[in-house]
Amino acid sequence: MNTLADLTQACTIIIWIASAFHAAINFGQYLYAGYLSNRPTVSRRFMPKPGTKEYDELENNPDLAFLKTITAQFQALLGVSLIKGLSRHATNEIYLGQRDTAEWTTDDEPLAAFERFGKKLVEIGSRITERTNDSKLKNRVGPVKVPYTLLYPNTSDYSREGGLIGKGIPNSISI
């Protein structure tokens, strides 16, 4: 690192990874992997080859063959429980654009910059909502009409509601 631009890029990458990138990857795990059929944690046998008794079972009783192949019930319960725990927001979560105390600084310049940043996040949230509600943009919600909210900033939410809320970008990685 030799220039201010290098330092700025490095800091930006660190902030991105510890906030938005982590939110996009971590908090959506349960929505996808919490239903075992979407993402079994292990396959206990290979796809059967034609002419074997396992293949005959697959043809005649596909449900039984599926249940013999996917994760055992106890392992699945452990896996889903772990993913649910990792996907939860803490009740004391501080989101991007928020501070836990009003006294974090008394300097006017950073306070003004932080206020501009907060307004920009609110604009981004509005844009996400607008695009999600635009029926011409089918890739935004898919055929089942489930909106993508993982990167919705949620900056104005000070309720400290934790759990599987599926939105909000924490200030830092929280596990």
From TrEMBL:
Molecular function terms from GO: metal ion binding; oxidoreductase activity, acting on single donors with incorporation of molecular oxygen, incorporation of two atoms of oxygen
Domain of life: Eukaryota
PANTHER family: LIPOXYGENASE (PTHR11771)
Biological process, per Gene Ontology: lipid oxidation
InterPro entries in the cross-refs: LipOase (IPR000907), LipOase_C (IPR013819), LipOase_C_sf (IPR036226)
Presence of the UniProt keyword Cell inner membrane in the record: no
Pfam families assigned to the protein according to its UniProt record, in alphabetical order: Lipoxygenase
UniProt-listed SUPFAM superfamilies: Lipoxigenase
Record-annotated Lipoxygenase domain positions: 1-175
Keyword vocabulary terms for this entry: Dioxygenase, Membrane, Metal-binding, Oxidoreductase, Transmembrane, Transmembrane helix
TM region(s), chain numbering: 13-35
Protein name as catalogued: Lipoxygenase domain-containing protein
PROSITE patterns: LIPOXYGENASE_3
Gene3D superfamilies for the chain: Lipoxygenase-1, Domain 5
